[in-house]
Amino acid sequence: MRKKELHSKMKEGMAEVEKFTYKYLVETMTVLAILIATFSGWMHFFIGTMGWSILFLAIGAIAGLFAPIQMDAIMTRIYSFSKGRSRPTIIAAEVIKIAIALFLPFIYLCFMGIMSGTAFQYYIQTSGNKS
């Protein structure tokens, strides 16, 4: 009897995971891509090492800090591709993102650095305007 209860609970849990993933597909795949890029760079899979990944992350963050408007325009063009597209197109874009994270982790982490630099610049600008 306990085995059936455990199986039932596992099915309920998987249904919840499926609902969450369906609702937040891009966010879930982004977290997966970050984990894959980190693991791929750390374990020296394919091209790139952790040193290159950290270097490109820093370069992206510096570029985002010193040229936030230009970097924001570039990132908006890249990430707005899937906005308003059909679900298969979004899934294809996410699979490409995961493939880049696996095979070229330093490029994916450079994009993460750009986003963190522009977000930091935005935070600096908006936090100073609060009275």
Could you characterize the architecture of this molecule?
The protein has 131 residues and is mainly α. The protein has one domain (25-124). Helices cover 83% and strands 0% of the residues. The chain has six helices and no strands. It is globular and about 60 Å long.
Essential attributes:
131 residues; mainly alpha; single chain
Oligomer: single chain
For the sheet with most strands, the description reads: none
Helical content (DSSP H or I, runs of 4+): over 70%
Q: What number is the mean pLDDT?
A: 84
| Total domain count | 1
Amount of beta strand: under 5%
In angstroms, what is the radius of gyration? 19 Å
Q: What is the total tally of β strands?
A: 0
Shape: globular
Helix/strand order = HHHHHH
Structural class: mainly alpha
Q: Total number of helical segments? A: 6
Give the low-pLDDT segments.
none
